[in-house]
Protein 1
Amino acid sequence: MLFHSTRGKDKDRDFSSILMQGLADDGGLFMPNYWPQVDLNEIKSKQSFVEVAKCIVPLFTSSSFSHQETLNILESTWHDFEHKDLVGIKNLNHVSVLELFHGPTAAFKDFGLQLAAAFFNKVLESEDKTAIVLGATSGDTGSAAIDACKNYNRIKSFIMLPNGNMSEVQQRQMSTIKSPNVYALRINGTFDDCQDLVKLAFKERDFLNKNQYLLAVNSINWTRIIGQICYYFYAYNQLHEKGKLSFSIPTGNFGNVFACYSAHKMGLPINKISVAVNNNDILHRFFQKNDYSKQSVHETISPSMDISVASNFERLIYDLFLDRNASVCAEMFDNFPTSPIDLNMSTWKKKEDLFSSSKVNDTDTTGMIEEVHRSNGYLLDPHTAVAAVEAFKLSDKKNHYVLLSTAHPAKFPKVYEELNIEIKSSPVALKDLFKKDEHLHTFDADYKKITNFIKLNN
Ligand SMILES: *Cc1c(COP(=O)(O)O)cnc(C)c1O
């Protein structure tokens, strides 16, 4: 399997090279050259999540790793999960909750980032090189990236977080990790300032050692998507007796939804994919009225979905709407967000078979948390609650909904304090967070000072 860019200039690249590069040179996102097909009978017969993953991941890694090498990596990739089969499934009335928060950072991002980190490390070992991971975070990506990389001594991670702009649990998940190759950099500025610094760093690269990789861990990295495709097939493995499934997905950058769409293209029978957003509604506006235009970010109680544009959406435009016409895609996204994405009606209507969308404000989100808590004694995290509204409304015997639960409620204690709901069980990973020392390095949004620090510690 080789890969190419959605904007057409980067072609026929092998797995390792797109893993290590992240974004294509032409600004596009990498895509597999074709959709490999999965044997559903084989998926049905598997006994665990990792066994299911072994049917999926090698389909994408074959240009750089032998089948056996990939299987060996998968044996040890996902670690420190509290659930014996990594993913939990709870049935509430007629909805199945796919619990993806049993990993070490209590959000689904562990699935993609642990897989990416394991392959980063393999490439670095085989080329005898080192790497710097540099990222900006306002939520769960940073902690999952740090955790995934902390035990690989060829990788040093520097993660920038905006000062004061995230939940204290989320900040402490990054600042309390004690590892010599992890640095949490608190930036006096906004998330956008952090992102601008990361962008500049990827352009300048003036702090790297000779032959050193600079790795991107944001959600456009295709390997993160591969890790997520696996749990959609696992849902099928566990729930296929309920008929053709629908999935309701709390959505920000569209990585999780694109993984679901990819699984469908690889042969997974799906009725509907329900794209659920909070007040940051660019995707809802697109699916409802063909309006994909950037607006400013609103702060909500589901902060990991507070985005102004959905970085993975270009992949869907390219694959579904434009039938993989890269030159049209390049023209659209080279000019975005200055010009909104504008599809003609018949093209836009291609969404109808598979996609629906919903927008849920904070009041309705907490209402949903309270309702499910009252009637099922089950606590939804605020992100999951956004997607729960549609799942509970539409699920029935003929159309079974799977609700993706992307984080553990204990990550967002303030929400439950205000609702007077006690969080009864907390993941081990979060338990001692407030007893540990923080290791934060504070900087102004000053490129020279920050990169000097990286050089000093490189
Ligand atoms: C990142 C995140 C999301 C959004 O996922 P995307 O793949 O960016 O759409 C939703 N919920 C939680 C808890 C997250 O951390």
Note: The first helix runs from residue 15 to 21.
Protein 2
Amino acid sequence: MTQIKDISRERSAELYAKAKTYFPGGVNSPVRAFKSVYGTPLFIKKGDGSHIWDADDNEFIDFCCSWGPLILGHNHSKVKEKVIEVMQNGMSFGAPTALENELAELILNNNKFIEKLRFVSSGTEAVMSAIRLARGYTKRDKILKFEGCYHGHSDSLLVKAGSGLVTFGETSSAGVPKSFADETIVIALNDPEALQKAFADFKDQIAAVIIEPVPANNGLLLQTKEYLQLLRDTCTQNGTLLIFDEVISGFRIGFEGAAGYYDIQPDIITYGKIIGGGLPVGCYGASAEIMSHISPDGGVYQAGTLSGNPVAMAAGIAQLSELLQPGFYEELKNKIEVFVKDIQQYADERGYKFKIFSIGSIFWFAFTGQESISRADEIDPASMENFKILHRELLNRGIYMGPSGYEVGFISSAHTKADLEKAKSAIFEGLDLVFSK
Ligand SMILES: *Cc1c(COP(=O)(O)O)cnc(C)c1O
């Protein structure tokens, strides 16, 4: 297998050079800078269905899907039409609109895990607010999170584990006060002993345990139902709230997300990404009793100038309505099962040290011999070199993946069987190249 010619990135390179004079690193979100893969970032000018086009007119089948929100693919006609319809009447009022009720009804009537919710404008904001709610509700300060779970970029959550079984957080970013990080306890995923020790060490101090029930921001670190249930039980026994951060898994692995998939009732759930149909929307929800602590009913303050923005609500309404069509998730799942199975089989037959892990329409390429990976420290950083090669080969063959081996891929309902066949061939060739060295 030989390497093929690199795609042209002339126009993207020009735009990137300009962008570097305007934005730190030339981007408005760091991963977009292609720091861990080859070449300059591609500037995208158009998306339609499962395909995107860059500034040099290269065409790709897109498996990034804007990092998850676009479960119907790009430029879905129903979403676009609804957004345009609502926009005819203005963009924002800072006053309630019926559209907020409509999106809330779609969610609450089809989700048995929350009774009330509040719309915000991003996943970060949803999680930040959920943490404040948990602290206000329990009158405790500490939160417990897991190494390898990403919850947006708010101060208390940009904290990773140091060494040792239970460590006080060490910040992952400059600018986070040590005193904030000290309120965040970090333990490894899937480690019942560390959990027990944290609750013993910080008895009656932990306001909330927050987890991505489907950890998908640092590889795909699938947890067992037993472990998630252990979190539920431990929180209940200790008067601690359990927060499921479902910004990725919500509406993705089923309309009720991971709570529904594992049938575990968390105390607070956060959503983002899919909920806004590609526009900036996040939300957090809980029982009516817990939500009564939010301002103006309760003492936990949280607000937003553009919260519940009508145009964003419109996109969410149109997208979630499609997800509620009978058979939507089954169809998606069936398509992906074949894709994943064929890729794994190809790698296994050739003895490649490679696994494709997946759940619902999320998948992750892991260059590992392990049958499963459930903790961040089980990922070999050196294996990312393989992803880097694969990423370049896939781009050259018209397949766009997020530019980091720690990121997962997403499949939308717009991906056709033909798209997946084409992607499979490209992945096979890419793997052959990776393992020919
Ligand atoms: C993307 C993500 C966030 C942050 O959402 P933004 O909209 O990027 O602020 C938080 N938690 C999880 C699990 C996410 O995947």
Note: The chain has a mean pLDDT of 95.
Protein 3
Amino acid sequence: MAPFSLIILISIVLSFLDDGSASQNPYLRHVHRPCKSMVVYFHDIRYNGNNDQNATSRIVGEPEGANKTSLVGVGLTHFGDLIAFDDPLTEDNNLRSPPAGRAQGFYLYDGRNQPASWHGFSMIFNSTKYKGTLTLAGLNVILAKTRDISVVGGTGDFFMHRGIATFSTDAVEDETYFRLRIQIKLYECWKLMNH
Ligand SMILES: *[C@@H]1O[C@H](CO)[C@@H](O)[C@H](O)[C@H]1NC(C)=O
Ligand SMILES: *[C@@H]1O[C@H](CO)[C@@H](O)[C@H](O)[C@H]1NC(C)=O
Ligand SMILES: *[C@@H]1O[C@H](CO)[C@@H](O)[C@H](O)[C@H]1NC(C)=O
């Protein structure tokens, strides 16, 4: 068989084996297992007018008629409140454990009929385990048992990483404190080569 027809034969066979997706796009991969995973606890103490010494978040925007010391409205929706935060992250659920990192950014109560908040923030790690940042963005449907938020990128030890952060509410104490358990699973992990 001439080499040319052999090539044609091979490409015909390959086209039958093709599942129609992965081989056309070399960047499209089906991943089942994370390349990195970890759990962190996110502690938020909201300023209420008299806890300045330990508050880690503040209302910075509110709807007409509301104020910056109380979340607006009855119930849990608080529609229109915007909160800025610089919250500690710990490896276990103890607020007083040495922080593994910080979470800095904002959340906006954006559910009119059901409690929901939109989070845009970065986690900053500076421990012996990890140095670098992860940036998260997505909707937190507060009363759902678990909520998946996108991890849209990273720097340092998390160079160009992407994945999913699953939030679950771990504690809600009085009006000012809540704690989230965040399970982070990264499905794309790149390594920066310096040379
Ligand atoms: C923060 O400080 C206030 C006022 O001292 C206190 O009542 C509250 O329990 C503290 N919050 C937490 C989560 O430790
Ligand atoms: C803020 O709003 C809350 C709820 O309406 C109210 O109880 C509180 O007194 C207000 N605080 C200030 C400082 O106006
Ligand atoms: C990280 O920690 C080291 C050692 O504690 C400190 O020197 C450095 O300034 C920290 N970097 C950041 C970005 O916080």
Note: Residues 112 and 134 are 29 Å apart (CA to CA).
Protein 4
Amino acid sequence: MSNIEQYANPQILDLVAYEPGKPIEETARELGMAPEDIVKLASNENPLGPSPKAVQAMCQAASQANIYPDGAAFRLRTAIANRYQVDFNQTIVGSGSSEIIELVGHAFLNRDAEVVAAEHAFSMYPIMSKLFGARYVQVPNKPDWSHDLKGFLDAITDKTRVVFITNPTNPLGTIVSQQEIDDFMAHVPNHVVVCFDEAYHEFSDQPADTVKFVRDGRQVVVLKTFSKVYGLAGLRIGFGLAPQSLCTLLHKCRTPFNAHLLAQEAALAALDDQDHIRKTIENNNAEMTRYEEAFRSMNLEWIPSHANFVLVKVGHGRDVFQALLKRGVITRAQGGYGLPEWLRISIGTPKENIRCIDMLREVLAQ
Ligand SMILES: *Cc1c(COP(=O)(O)O)cnc(C)c1O
């Protein structure tokens, strides 16, 4: 047998693949429980389900599944452009915003490039950096766990091509202010593409405006997704906003039909479902308060979150994760993010959260 690794791209040999939240069916199988009895609070999905309008749009489109989707995603991109007051040519859709991150890698990263991001940032950034052989530079957070954008500026070198600013950030849930972003943008050099990852933007009560940099023709990509507030994680659809010249480069890197037919139709319907978005945010705000009160009563430290999840310090994160898992509650241990004492809990429905809190109390009392 030949050793196939010797022929592979060297930078991928020690790449550690993304570890997703544990699936409900797998957990049910392992525990011998019914899938309905498992609570998954591990992947920041929308606990209220997909937008009902999106489901209806998919059902209508299903009979056209024999036809290739519109590779230019004309209707969806037009709606996105209208929503964000940008030009059609400043939009791109992808198979989740993860794909847009990959396209940025295709366009700008190689073995001479460097990427700058915050410590404990979304693991797709180091994975994508590594995939393209780029050096991944992490900037320590401020004491309140938010991005240190001054530290970002210090970390930028002549080789830096891409910077990731996650706002709100995952898994920490902290935000950076408009002022911090404006100061950063006033000083960032021109050879750097700034990616504002705004997967949780809608959950924040202090959302910063970064789309203005797209309109101003700055070297930015604003990343958005239908996976979180819109409730369409299973469809894999997200989008990016960037000045036309930059956006054109990203379009060159994508496959022709990267956003599939049902996903495009569902996203188009979900974009306008204000009712579903409002209910989702209301549930999130109310249930976040439930967790904060529970943590306070259990004397647990947590990081105040502007997103749809919360990070809580439980001691040995992996053990508590396992103990909760045995009780049918899937959360997310954070060892892989360099936070072994912490657990990330996605905000669910009232019923799911009550169960999670009860089980957490039981586990920590032991
Ligand atoms: C969930 C998430 C995304 C969105 O991922 P999709 O590929 O669109 O599902 C992007 N960035 C961060 C930080 C996230 O947590």
Note: The longest strand covers residues 160-166.
